[in-house]
Structures are given as C-alpha cells and as structure tokens.
Amino acid sequence: MNLREDHVVEVINGWIGGLFAPKHLDETVATLVGDQSCALMLDVAGLEEVKARRADAEARLRRYQEAIGAT
Fold this sequence. Notes:
The protein is mainly alpha-helical. The chain has one domain. The protein has helices spanning 5-19, 25-70. The relative contact order is 0.05.
C-alpha cells in the first residue's frame, strides 16, 4: 500500500506542532526525557549482556589455547 505524502503531511505537521504547543510542552518534554532514560536502561542492560558474553568467549579461547599448548 502506498500513501502519498501530500495527503498526510499537513495532518502530521499539525499533530507534531500540537505536541510542542505551549499547553502540551511540559508533557511532551517529560515524555521525551522518560523515553531516553528507558533507552539508557536498555543500553546498560545490553552492555552487561555483551560484557558477559565477551568474558565467556575469552575464557573459552584461553582454554582452547591452553589445550593447544598442552599438545
């Protein structure tokens, strides 16, 4: 399904403009800041998983190298 830009751009621009209208600005900013902190929490959780996977890979690599060196 194709949606022509000229059919929606005015509506979308009005909606975005409304989000940043003075009466909605505090709520919009709070929502944006809240989303960023959530994204940061996900990044930290993802980083911890990556660190754990790296530590596991390095441990396995050391064991393989020791096994090769023992032969």
